[in-house]
């Protein structure tokens, strides 16, 4: 089901995220589900959909389309993430046609992390298109033609999402790009993780007028080390010292409940400002059932 | 200019293995500016090669080795010496190496022409003798008029045309924190010029056919094919 339909119905949309494994995922006798499928299964009753990352952090993994299709087959609604880093315009359009043909209803269109940060730093970066242009060609495909204006035998019909970073300074420049994404076809947004409700409020006060549903994105902080790592290594993200200190004052065996407490507090402050939440649990998907109620009566794909 | 750096001497010795008589050809243009292939660097390379037992047949430094008009008058009179050489080592950009090879072929000589430098980009000198920046990719479709004279194709690590990614922090690039985020620079420049509205326009995907390799410039006609 398209996320856009859920937003239209007034649903508060909860999504989470899994990262495909570095390896093949062919089911066989005695084969255990890989971690990303186990994680998705563990939260299936608590989220409307699950993002599937595309070679996240420029690290080579199982493809996001294959992983998204595996979720779909299990009745878990995937949000197929597609980045511009590794594909030129032919491949991007072809993959969008493939995604729709395989039952994908939601696509999140991204630029992609730079190769320099990944595990193949010597690769040739593609970036033939940017995320705004990708949204436009995805919209074209929905409307029945490719980016050269050539008609398709059958159009795609997917909900198009995009991302925005409320932490970005100058914020007006990030908002300018957000508006361009909306103008070219973005119909829902997931934000970068934000830990300062004031930062989020400043952002939402400006972005709310754009009239497009926004999901508050949050990476669950699992330890003070992780928080410090994010501040040092993850560009565009800032974890306040108060949260790091709070985590650091917690015995390691209690990191998990503390992570739940911090996340719940942020959700309490920020969720009222938005139309949904997007969790980035970094492997701690088991916390999600402790943070949100089950999605009541949600009719999942393949399940009715 | 074309930026160049000297290849490791061990690599140069490796490519010259088996070549006892070597001619060293530099370039008094870009390579001189980079201190990699001017007359001084050619002399220094010749001295190092002599220490390794090489015979230096000649040293030459055309004003622009990538330009036949400049290189030919220097190399043509040296044909007899070139004939004696086992290899030519060129301390110039990749263009200088290939023009030197082309000229030796025109002279009817089949002599290995080796590169002593790595070419590292179209570079603009911002601090003389110290620092040069890559600011233009020669994409064939210049958009500097739309971006306040700052090129996102080159200066944005991802070559984004419609604004920044979300990765910049403290004004610095996600891919290399030593670099400024090109889009923040563009934004500030366009703000100062009162032209921010230009940035709101959708920029269509780039026409990369204009940069399809290898391009030929028909100088008199001002045409690329």
Properties at a glance:
A: 304 residues, alpha/beta, TIM Barrel, 8-stranded parallel barrel, 11 helices, B: 225 residues, Rossmann fold, 2 domains, 3-stranded antiparallel β-sheet, 9 strands
Describe the structure in your own words.
The complex is a heterodimer of chains A (304) and B (225). Chain A has 304 residues and is an alpha/beta fold. Chain A has one domain (3-291): TIM Barrel, CATH 3.20.20. In chain A, 37% of the residues lie in helices and 14% in strands. Chain A has 11 helices and 8 strands. Chain A has helices at 3-8, 35-43, 64-73, 89-101, 131-142, 171-184, 197-207, 224-233, 241-248, 255-270, 288-291; strands at residues 13-18, 49-52, 78-83, 106-110, 159-164, 188-191, 214-219, 276-280. Chain A has an 8-stranded parallel barrel with strand order 1-2-3-4-5-6-7-8, surrounded by 6 helices. Chain B is α/β, with parallel strands linked by helices and 225 residues long. Chain B has 2 domains: 2-121, Response regulator (Rossmann fold, 3-Layer(aba) Sandwich); 135-218, no CATH class. Chain B contains 9 helices and 9 strands. Chain B has a 4-stranded parallel beta sheet with strand order 3-2-4-5, with helices on both faces. Chain B is elongated and about 65 Å long. Classes of the chains: A alpha/beta (304), B alpha/beta (225). Chain A binds chain B through residues 84-85, 89, 111-114, 116-117, 125, 127-133, 136-137, 147, 163-165, 167-170, 173-174, 176-177, 179-180, 183-184, 192, 235-236, 238, and chain B through 157-172, 174-177, 183-184, 187, 196, 199-200, 202-206, 208.
Give the arrangement of secondary structure elements.
The complex is a heterodimer of chains A (304) and B (225).
Chain A lengths: L2 H6 L4 E6 L16 H9 L5 E4 L11 H10 L4 E6 L5 H13 L4 E5 L20 H12 L16 E6 L6 H14 L3 E4 L5 H11 L6 E6 L4 H10 L7 H8 L6 H16 L5 E5 L7 H4 L13
Parallel strand pairs in A: 1-2, 1-8, 2-3, 3-4, 4-5, 5-6, 6-7, 7-8
Helix pairs in contact in A: 4-5, 5-6, 8-9
Chain B lengths: L1 E5 L2 H7 L5 E5 L4 H4 L5 H13 L3 E6 L7 H8 L3 H6 L2 E4 L3 H13 L6 E3 L1 E11 L3 E4 L17 H4 L26 H12 L2 H4 L17 E2 L4 E2 L1
């Amino acid at each position: 089901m398209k996320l856009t339909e859920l937003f239209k119905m007034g649903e508060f949309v909860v999504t989470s995220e899994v990262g495909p494994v570095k390896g093949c995922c062919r089911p066989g006798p005695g084969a255990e589900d890989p971690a990303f499928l186990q994680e998705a299964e563990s939260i299936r009753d608590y989220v409307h959909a699950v993002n599937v990352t595309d070679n996240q952090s420029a690290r080579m993994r199982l493809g996001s389309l294959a992983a998204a299709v595996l979720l779909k087959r299990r009745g878990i609604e995937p949000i197929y993430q597609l980045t511009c880093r590794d594909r030129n315009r032919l491949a991007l359009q072809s993959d969008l046609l493939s995604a729709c043909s395989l039952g994908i209803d939601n696509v999140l269109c991204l630029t992609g992390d730079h190769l320099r940060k990944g595990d193949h730093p010597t690769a040739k970066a593609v970036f033939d298109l940017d995320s705004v242009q990708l949204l436009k060609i995805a919209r074209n495909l929905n409307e029945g033609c490719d980016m050269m204006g050539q008609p398709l035998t059958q159009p795609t019909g997917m909900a198009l999402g995009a991302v925005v970073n409320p932490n970005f300074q100058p914020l007006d420049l990030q908002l300018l790009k957000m508006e361009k994404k909306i103008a070219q076809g973005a119909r829902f947004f997931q934000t970068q993780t934000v830990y300062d409700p004031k930062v989020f409020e400043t952002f939402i006060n400006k972005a709310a007028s754009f009239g497009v549903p926004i999901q508050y994105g949050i990476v669950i902080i699992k330890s003070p080390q992780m928080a410090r790592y994010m501040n040092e290594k993850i560009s565009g993200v800032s974890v306040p010292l108060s949260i790091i200190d709070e985590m650091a004052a917690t015995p390691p065996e209690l990191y998990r409940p503390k992570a739940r407490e911090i996340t719940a507090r942020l959700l309490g402050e920020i969720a009222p400002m938005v139309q949904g939440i997007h969790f980035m649990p970094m492997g701690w998907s088991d916390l999600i059932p402790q943070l949100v109620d089950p999605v009541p009566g949600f009719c999942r794909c393949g399940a009715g | 200019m074309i930026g160049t750096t000297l290849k490791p001497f061990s690599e140069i010795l490796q490519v010259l293995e088996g070549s006892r008589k070597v001619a060293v050809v530099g370039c008094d243009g870009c390579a001189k500016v980079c201190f990699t292939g001017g007359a001084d660097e050619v002399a220094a390379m010749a001295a190092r090669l002599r220490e390794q037992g090489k015979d230096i047949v000649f040293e030459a430094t055309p004003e622009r080795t990538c330009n036949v008009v400049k290189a030919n008058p220097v190399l043509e009179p040296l044909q007899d010496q070139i004939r004696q050489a086992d290899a030519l080592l060129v301390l110039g950009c990749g263009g200088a190496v290939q023009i030197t090879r082309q000229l030796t072929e025109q002279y009817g000589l089949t002599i290995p022409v080796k590169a002593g430098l790595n070419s590292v980009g179209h570079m603009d000198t911002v601090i003389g003798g110290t620092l040069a920046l890559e600011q233009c990719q020669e994409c064939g479709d210049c958009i500097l008029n739309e971006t306040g004279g700052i090129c996102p194709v080159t200066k944005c690590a991802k070559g984004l045309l419609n604004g920044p990614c979300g990765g910049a922090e403290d004004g610095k690039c996600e891919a290399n924190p030593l670099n400024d985020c090109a889009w923040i620079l563009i934004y500030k420049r366009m703000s100062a010029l009162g032209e921010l509205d230009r940035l709101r326009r959708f920029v269509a995907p780039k026409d990369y056919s204009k940069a399809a390799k290898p391009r030929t410039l028909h100088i008199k006609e001002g045409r690329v094919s």
